[in-house]
Specification:
By secondary structure, the chain is mainly α. It is built from five helices and no strands. The longest helix is centred in the last third of the chain and has 26 residues. The radius of gyration is 26 Å and the shape is elongated.
């Protein structure tokens, strides 16, 4: 059973149909001609007036921030850190070296790396 079409595909098909209807009767009705004049509308439309998801940092860094938060949140038991929100992580990043939370995350990562190195060394030696 095929998956339902994506909204973007449906929108593009409507644009293609509109262009074909406008160019109806021309001698260049082939599919290779489509797309020469067609322009995808801006997404998301400005009428939505969306707010930035990460106004302090900018949306460019938002994906990286969420990926880092997800990693630390998923392995917080192994790293030995308490649960925290994305907003708390943003605040900690702005504090920089003065952030206790970032220090705890770094210490947890260093301890994990050290334990892994000691285990690897033990396997090689024995």
């Amino acid at each position: 059973m095929p998956a339902p079409p994506d909204d973007l595909e449906l929108e593009w098909e409507r644009i293609a149909e509109a262009e074909r209807a406008q160019d109806y009767g021309s001698d260049t009705d082939g599919p290779e001609e489509f797309g020469r004049h067609a322009v995808r509308p801006e997404f998301p439309p400005p009428s939505l007036q969306l707010q930035e998801a990460f106004p302090k940092m900018g949306d460019e860094m938002g994906g990286d921030l969420l990926m880092a938060w997800s990693f630390v949140h998923s392995f917080r038991d192994i790293l030995g850190v308490d649960a925290f929100t994305v907003d708390e992580l943003i605040e900690a990043l702005f504090k920089g070296q003065a952030s206790e939370m970032l220090s705890n995350i770094h210490i947890g990562l260093i301890r994990l790396i050290q334990a892994n190195m000691e285990e690897s060394h033990y396997l090689v030696v024995t």
